[in-house]
Each structure stands twice: as C-alpha cells, then as structure tokens.
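User: Predict the complex with zinc ion.
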Amino acid sequence: MNICAVFEHLLAPHRCLLCGGGCRQALCPGCLAQLPQAPKNGEWLEDGLQVQASWSYQPPADTAVLSFKYGGGESLARLWAQQMAPRVDGQPVLQQALTERVALLRAVRTRATPPQQGLSREARLRNVDGAFRVPARRQQRPVLLIDDVLTTGASLRALAAAARAAGAGRIEAVVMARALP
Ligand SMILES: [Zn+2]
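Assistant: Here is the predicted structure with zinc ion placed in the model:
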C-alpha cells in the first residue's frame, strides 16, 4: 500500500454502499444526494400512528436499503439517524430516540410469518396480526418504532398494537424508506 492509499484509507475507511467509492460513511456525498426524499411531514396511518420516512423506496434508495438489510449494517443506520434528526425537530419522542441513548426494546415474534412481499394489503394485515410481542415496561412510556421500509403499514400497526398491549404511552414510528403499496 503506497502512502497515498494509506492516507485515503485513513480518511475513507468505508466503501460507499452504492458506488463502491471510498468514503467516510455508508454513502458518498454524491450518492447520498441522489436518494429521493420522502415527504417531510410524515404521514398518519389509519390507526393514528404517525410515521416519518427519510427516503422514497425508489432507485437508488431501494438498493441502499437492501444493502443495509443484507450486510451494510450499522454504517447506514448511523447515517440514517443523522439524516433523520433534523426532520424530527419539535417531536420529543423521535428526537430523544435518535440523538440520545435510549433503551432499545426488541419486539419478538410470537409466530413465524411468511414474507410480506407480494401479498395484498388485506393479506399483509392478516399475516402480521398478533405476530409481535413487546416486553412489558413501566406504564405510559413513549415508544418509538423503527423499521426499514413502510409499504402498507401492516407491520407497524401490529407492532404498535403490541406496544400498546405492553403499556406504552405515546407511540411514533420512523422508517428508512416509504414504498408505494
Ligand atoms: Zn457513492
């Protein structure tokens, strides 16, 4: 490794998930700028759950999210949290979760469910209904649900129901990308 390569490696220890170029985080600035942004105001699901998405699940954001799911790991999560933090200004639950260390509760599946891909909206709702359990915590604690892709919202609704059953207070959700159902 020559001195330039050493220097480049020190400055750019990661490879961009999309173009493979050296960079200091999961995506290089050029690729990051190309990700289609989701509407900034978020949206409300039918059951009153507010969801904030960072990106629209279209090229090249879909590739980045898939890379994250299948091996891109923590570096994209870190970049995503940085991107998301300014969006949640004034929303204490989200801001606290994304900028401070908070207790993470992992929802557990109560049964195996087939993948949601390719299912109709009704089938998706049926597929995940009652499929999650959240460990009980002190009553009325705010809960932030974190997921990778929002399509019909079936998984988030099932997770919110599980959180409510565990005594959660205010519930909000963030996702990396919003897909069209
Ligand atoms: Zn790149």
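The chain has a mean pLDDT of 81.
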